[in-house]
Amino acid sequence: MNHTEFRNTFFKLPKADVHSHLHLAGSQKRFFEKYPNANLTFPKTYDGLTGMIDFIYGHLNTIMVKGEDVINFMEIAIESAIDDNVTLLEASVDLNLARFFDDSIERVIEITKTLKDKYKSDIDFKPDLGVNKDLEIEKVYTNGLKCLESGAFHGVDLYGQEVGKDLNPFVKFYDIAKDMGLKTKVHIGEFSDTESIEHTINLLAPDELQHGIRAVESEKTVALIRDNNIRLNICPTSNVMLGAVDSLKAHPIRQLLDNNIKVCINTDDLILFNANVTDEFVKLFETGLFTSDELDRIRLNAF
Q1: CA 267 to the chain's CA centroid
Q2: CA geometry: angle at 16 spanning 14 and 17, to 5°?
Q3: Which stretches of 151-230 are DSSP H helices?
Q4: Above 90 in pLDDT, residue 293?
Q5: pLDDT for 248-283, tens place per residue?
Q6: Nearest to 215 by CA among 258, 155, 267, 277
Q7: What is the mean pLDDT of the chain?
Q8: Residue 1 has pLDDT above 80, yes or no
Q9: Which helix (H) or strand (E) holds 139?
Q10: Is 2 exposed, middle or buried (0-12, 13-18, 19+ CB in 10 A)?
């Protein structure tokens, strides 16, 4: 199978994106169609997480300034997934988006439910509640619990800077989410070390890790992930553009799969990294890291 045949085949296949941040998950094409006068140039690379955050707040958030814009960004994200024949979308709705709606978490819940209903015939949209590690813990246990109790969310995703963050305040929140039957995810191990991955697993017992790629640096960490049947939701282009890995050819996903770790391929922030799920698979195929059959197995892992 040549590259063109591979792209055509994988484009037609149903795919899942289970590591995505909804208000950042629209394609650049749909973004510029919605905001044709936006004076915005997306970088080819970012200087780590800090550089990405600086771009979001210093540039992208000059466009996303009102609640109406947040809804636009969310809608183009879901439509972009549909464009790529993504049939399952687990994307996080950030808890702090309430700030765009006069701090009304009820409005965020309402919007999430409306989007699920609006697109239900086109895609299985299962929103996660996105929680930044830097958010005031009081809001996590007030607004966050309202979100969990609303029935609008299918999971919880904890993210933000990975190094030097105390996760103990989130233990009870994750216990509550699990008691409600919600899926639990944590961002860890893209930039942080294997010790942080092990600590996170032992403390929060997540179902899935967002990234987790540095696990390959320790056989003990790999074994802990495998023994707990934790899936790694990996975003290769994001890892490269943020400098977590040097290149796709050097990406540790091959080692992870060879160590019987369940991995899947995702976009992270499509608007920032400009690679949809099909693009991610094509890039990995072009590197020669995987056969088409292996990539199809990885595709199915996401379901």
Answers
A1: 7
A2: 145
A3: 171-179, 194-204, 219-227
A4: yes
A5: 999 999 999 999 999 999 999 999 999 999 999 999
A6: 258
A7: 96
A8: no
A9: helix 137-150
A10: exposed
Classify residue 266 as left (phi > 0), alpha (psi -120 to 50) or beta. beta
All structural domains of the chain, each given as residue ranges with its CATH number in brackets, are 3-301 (3.20.20.140)
The single-letter code of the amino acid at 276 is: N
Q: Tell me the chain's radius of gyration from C-alpha atoms.
A: 18
Q: If you ran DSSP here, which 8-state letter would residue 150 be given?
A: H
Beta bridge partners of 208: 185, 231
Nearest to 81 by CA among 32, 118, 27, 7: 27
* Per-residue tokens: 266: 């995702």
Tell me the residue length of the chain. Answer: 303
3-state secondary structure of 254: helix
Taking the C-alpha atoms of residue 301 and residue 303, their distance in angstroms, rounded to an integer, is 5
Taking the C-alpha atoms of residue 291 and residue 295, their distance in angstroms, rounded to an integer, is 6
DSSP secondary structure letters along 9-69:
HHHHS-EEEEEEEGGG-S-HHHHHHH-TT------SS-SHHHHHHHHHHHTGGGT--SHHH
Q: How far apart are CA 204 and CA 100, in angstroms?
A: 30
pLDDT above 90 covers a percentage of the chain that reads 95
Packing angle, helices 137-150 and 105-118, rounded to 10: 40
Crossing angle for the helix pair 194-204 and 219-227, nearest 10 degrees? 20
What percent of the chain is helix, strand and coil (3-state, nearest 5)?
A: 55, 15, 30
